[in-house]
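Chains adopt folds. We examine one example:
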Amino acid sequence: MSICTAPVYKLEELNNLFIEMTSKNCNQRCSNCYINFPSSKTVKDFIPIDRVKECLIQTKNDNVSCIYLTGAEPMTHPDFNSILRLCLKRCNVCICTNASFLNEKKVRFLKKVEDEGENQIFFSLSIAHYEELLSDKVRYRGSFRQVLSALKILNGYNFMSVLFFHNFYNLKKEEIIDNVSALLKQNDIENTDIKINASYPSNSDISIGVSLKTDCMSGRILCSNGVYSCPFLANDYRGRVGASFEDYSKYVTAETDFCLTCASNNGSFFSID
């Protein structure tokens, strides 16, 4: 009888620090979201700001190059601006958002916040297809135009953005790059990199193997109730590596469907590299 064992990944260096601002609070409902939302939209499970302060102290000797404010929708957090300022004092910050809060007024304010110090704010936004209707079918109605509008505004204030393309339709890389690049050019959007990710659930039938680079090899995520290996496994006991950054494991066993998605992606899924 053969015994199948899942590969074990080791954190090589804590370069990417993810902070889950909220696990269930979001103002939208993407049909392909990996988060299992409750029926109510009024869940208030925001991470306490003191928990973030504690984390920044505990990781002060780590070579953290970017802090990711993520969630559900991180910009729903009532202390979002304060937490952003705290993190910017440490290093660059990437805001992972559905773009619904990124209007002219908010982006202008965020530029003022960035100008208060030396570190930069980046933005992570996503689409599922270069055609509006096909992208909205995977996400939610209006999301495609919302993302393009936000990218235009961010571009106007010289913010750098990363547009994550979640390859739900299993398109060829060349097709994605050519069409998304044309879409950005058509809308006069610059300062935007394109990152292609495998969709979840993975369209691949490969078995889980050791990839060259995964988020759990360079990062950890802080949640209200502990530290986890990656945003996919936030609040999942299979990804829990410790109660705090004072004492946490650098090893994680890749035994979930989420790990299969990262294996088929063959690279980091959440970090902007």
